[in-house]
Specification:
- The complex is a heterodimer.
- Chain A contains 17 helices and 18 strands.
- By secondary structure, chain A is an alpha+beta fold.
- Chain A has a five-stranded antiparallel beta sheet. Chain A has a five-stranded antiparallel beta sheet with strand order 15-12-14-13-17, sandwiched between helices. A four-stranded mixed beta sheet of chain A has the order 1-2-4-3.
- In chain A, a hairpin with a 5-residue loop joins β8 and β9.
- In chain A, α8 crosses α10 and α8 runs antiparallel to α13.
- Chain B is α/β, with parallel strands linked by helices.
- Chain B is built from 23 helices and eight strands.
- Chain B is globular, with a radius of gyration of 21 Å.
- Classes of the chains: A alpha+beta, B alpha/beta.
């Protein structure tokens, strides 16, 4: 059977109880309407939840969660479903709790540089709202125009500008979380409190817990002052190796760019077809280097960057002349994944990390892997922190291509670990990278993680079968893995 | 028993271009309102594919979610993969209309009102008579809610009127353009059409308005009646081939996007494809054409009123025209121009959507009205008759008599300096 199993109906009594809490239009139960919820942006594994509910406030979330606890039903939190690792896959069914209706900015306190938002608030909306005060919310995942702050907290999301500014955990002051038994807690700085935290500061525990500790319903985020000036450059190189060396040299020179991104030839071609930015389609690789900060001194730093690019045989270094040019350049970069639809019906993106010095080695390995498996693998990634994103292109209609894509992804990640890196930089483990946990962590590490999880979710009902080895996989995926073995 | 293989109503490559990334979600008005992914572009494409692959039969729920789509195409702007959502939607709707039976009321609305009345100006004029009588007598309260809502859209003083076949340029002639007078435009917004022609005349163009032109076919195409839309396209192509014009100008965004897509509509018709391409290549929105000469637009007197601009979906998303109309408005309003929050989120009008899906249309209408009132503007400018009717009705309902909704042609004609 090519797809996940048909969800069993939840009992009419439970359905009625859910409707009683959130109202009829916010409960989705029929097979036809559950289909779209069978996966997120990771489409290799699919399974239907038994129901999807769309609560409108924390109180409704807590009531739904308590009902599920009473009936021992798995709960799966879902933001915008943009996860690339199957983080919100309903592996064994259950009740999916979507935060799409909880998307408001509740308060924007520009004087204290913080904003209180609901878990389903779209990432980009925060910066849009803060812009007029000269502020911004720093973590900027490529999916920021759609992904939610609650989801960002669950995954500890990154983005191009995290090289200088840090990831989600560095910008969350506190948050409200509904635990799997329905208890509502606030971790970290409270909305009406100062920056200090009474007692243990537990805010770090659930950030990056992949939705397994509870459902994040409200978040107090830090806003930072928008940089006074930017210098955004596009370096054009004949080879990925030259571009990689440039990355290492820029950091070694003591320069910390706001962002330092690389795109190889194949992805540059796709992006150019999509956005007509003017990328050279015959270059081996392009580097986007963005310097930001105070206006004074930025020119000098930019000159130094140009010099380093030239030393590494850059064909040309272009400078964004207007704010519009800068915006267009970032749009092209951030929507690069999506442009893949122009090359291939499906793609599998990997998210490995290697030490910066190993970038040439891993890129060479990816090229070899591409040749061996007969699938194209374009690359667009956060070069500054060695976080690679090889995109393995395949067509889901051809089972052999699916098998080869999975294999290629796996050997690339194994190589990352071998080179001293890790299997994920920012997309999370989800269901996709479960097999790598044992390669990257010792049994003691994993046991410690399991113990922490049990504190929050002793029954293992909250977003189950993610992250830990030995978790269940979707039946169909097992089938594919067996073919590949 | 229904055992035949699923019908391939979608172009498979076009449907597979969606890679399920979800970046479209926050651009979709019905998703923003309901939070239900079945009401999002990604969800709807999932339903379309499930239908085509035979994963599930054509059920009421699927039809409902496809019906609820405004066809505003905001998702096409958000989509990094270049999914042609509008195309997929039209073909799915075509499939639904062939295979799904609707309630008597919906059938009447779709087959009679939308297909047999709106596209024919004379018929629409007749149909408006009883409606206007009810309004004059203030007898709305005797009608059921859906009829009251529909009636509230009709402006208090609709202006009809035929345009002369030739309207010569004022002053030095720079060229000749054709003009599409539209169906709703010519019955309810005759003054706007006259203003549009005058603006073109003033810009130095002879304007030809062939009387034999017909409906552009947009209403048919959007509701899944592609054959009828193709017939409409052939009529207009043949009519305008008789005239040697530099461009074919349209002042209704909804019609404009369909006119520009005649080549897609007639893609499989080798006899017409070439002619359709020539026709579509000449179609320009009024603002696109006028913005070529911005200097011609200066305020007649110092302009002190706060103005905002609502993006018509079929201009901003389907034709990607957002800058030109703003430039034209700003040329008059200067610093008094304010941006509208969610300016490109659909107002709920969406062609005939406010008749077929009144509830969602009302929710989006309220959302739009709230955003307009927040700007503090006294004039909201737009470029499509449907939006204009919807926004006017919303402002009336909110009791905002100090805020005026205007078509961009009327705005420019009223406030720009005439030599």
């Amino acid at each position: 059977m090519p797809y996940g199993t048909v969800a069993e109906q939840i009992s009419p009594q439970i359905q009625q109880a859910l409707i009683g809490i959130v109202g009829k239009e916010n409960v989705i139960c029929g097979h036809e309407e559950l289909l779209v919820y069978e996966c997120d942006a990771y489409t290799l594994e699919k399974n239907l939840p038994n129901a999807v509910v769309l609560p409108r406030n924390s109180k409704e979330v807590a009531e739904v969660v308590r009902l599920c606890a009473k009936h021992n039903l798995p709960i799966i939190p879902r933001g915008a479903g943009t996860s690339l690792s199957g983080s919100v896959l309903a592996v064994t069914g259950g009740v999916m709790i979507g935060l799409a209706r909880m998307n408001r900015i509740l308060d924007l306190d520009h004087r204290n540089r913080r904003a209180l938002v609901e878990g389903g608030c779209v990432n980009a909306w925060v910066t849009n709202a803060a812009k007029s005060h000269g502020l911004l919310y720093a973590p900027d995942p490529s999916s920021q125009s759609a992904c939610t702050i609650g989801g960002n907290v669950a995954m500890n999301s990154g983005g191009p500008h995290t090289l200088k500014y840090g990831v989600t955990t560095n910008h969350v002051l506190g948050y409200e979380i509904v635990l799997p038994d329905g208890e509502v807690l606030w971790f970290g700085t409270t909305p009406d409190g100062g920056e200090d935290v009474d007692g243990y500061d537990l805010r770090g525990t659930a950030i990056g817990s992949e939705g397994m500790f509870g459902i994040v319903t409200r978040v107090l985020v830090r806003l930072i002052k928008a940089p006074q000036a930017f210098k955004t450059m596009l370096g054009i190189f004949e080879s990925v190796d030259d571009a990689s060396q440039t990355v290492s040299d820029i950091i070694a020179a003591g320069i910390v760019p706001g962002a330092l991104e690389m795109m190889d030839q194949l992805i540059t071609q796709a992006v150019e077809a999509a956005y007509h930015f003017g990328f050279p389609t015959d270059a081996g690789a392009v580097l986007i280097v963005e310097l930001d900060g105070l206006g004074a001194g930025l020119d000098k730093q930019a000159e130094r960057v140009v010099e380093i690019c030239k030393q590494n045989r850059a064909r040309e270094v272009r400078m964004a002349k207007t704010e519009q040019e800068r915006a267009d350049l970032w749009k092209s970069r951030k929507r690069a994944f999506g442009a893949i639809g122009r090359l291939s019906p499906n793609f599998l993106t990997q998210d490995g990390v290697v030490p910066r010095s190993q970038l040439p080695a891993i890129m060479k390995f990816i090229r070899q892997t591409s040749e061996e498996c007969g699938l194209r693998i374009p690359n667009v990634f956060h070069a500054g922190d060695g976080n690679i994103h090889p995109l393995v292109l395949y067509d889901e209609r051809d089972p052999d291509q699916v098998r080869r894509a999975i294999d290629a992804g796996n050997v690339i990640l194994e190589k990352c670990i071998e080179l001293g890196g890790s299997a994920t930089g920012e997309h999370g483990i989800g269901v996709e990278k479960i097999d790598f946990m044992e390669k990257q962590f010792t049994k003691d590490d994993l046991d410690a993680m399991r113990k922490l999880r049990s504190v929050f979710d002793p029954d293992q009902r909250c977003n189950p079968h993610k992250m830990f080895p030995g978790s269940k996989r979707c039946g169909d995926f097992h089938h594919r893995k067996q073919i590949s073995a | 028993m229904n055992t035949h293989a699923p019908e391939q109503f979608l172009d498979e490559d076009k449907s597979l271009a969606c890679i399920h990334c979800g970046l479209c979600l926050s651009s979709c008005p019905t998703y923003l309102e309901t939070g239900n992914e079945n009401n999002s572009p990604r969800g709807r494409i999932y339903l379309m594919r499930a239908l085509q692959q035979g994963r599930q039969p054509l059920g009421d729920a699927t039809v409902h979610h496809i019906d609820l789509c405004l066809g505003c195409r905001a998702c096409e702007v958000a989509c990094p993969s270049g999914v042609q959502y509008g195309h997929l939607l039209e073909h799915t709707r075509d499939h639904i209309e062939k295979h799904h039976s609707r309630s008597t009321f919906q059938t009447f609305l779709r087959r009679v009102a939308i297909e047999k009345v709106f596209p024919f100006p004379t018929r629409m004029k007749l149909a408006l008579l009883p409606a206007r009588a009810v309004k004059l007598l203030h007898a709305e309260n005797f009608l059921p809610k859906f009829a009251r809502e529909a009636l509230s859209l009709i402006p208090d003083n609709p202006s009809a009127g035929k345009l002369p076949e030739i309207s010569p340029a004022f002053g030095e002639k720079r060229g000749t353009v054709g003009f599409i007078s539209g169906c709703v435009m010519s019955v309810m917004f005759g003054d706007t059409n006259r203003a549009s022609v005058k603006l073109l005349n003033r810009a130095g163009y002879d304007v030809v308005t062939p009387p034999a032109q017909g409906c552009c076919g947009a209403l048919h195409a959007h509701s899944g009646r592609l054959e009828l839309a193709r017939d409409a396209a052939r009529v207009n192509i043949a009519v305008f081939e008789q005239h040697n014009v530099d461009a074919i100008i349209i002042n209704a965004a909804g019609c404009g996007s369909t006119l520009k897509e005649y080549e897609n509509l007639l893609h499989h018709d080798p006899q017409w494809l070439d002619r359709a391409q020539k026709f579509s290549g000449k179609v320009k929105d009024l603002t696109e054409w006028l913005a070529k000469d911005l200097d011609a637009n200066k305020p007649a007197t110092p302009f002190k009123t706060k103005v905002t601009y609502h993006d018509a979906c079929h201009l901003a998303h389907a034709q990607r025209i957002t800058k030109q109309p703003r430039d034209l408005v700003k040329a008059i309003a200067g610093e008094n121009f304010v941006e509208l929050t969610e300016s490109d989120v659909c107002c709920g009008s969406a062609g005939t959507y406010n008749l077929t899906e009144p509830e969602m249309a009302e929710r989006l209408g309220n959302r739009k009205t709230e955003n307009i009132l927040k700007t503090g503007a006294q004039i909201v400018v737009t470029s499509n008759p449907g939006c204009l009717l919807q926004i006017q009705a919303g402002l009336r309902k909110a009791g905002a008599s100090n805020v005026k909704a205007m078509h961009i042609a009327d705005f420019l004609e009223e406030f720009s300096q005439h030599p």
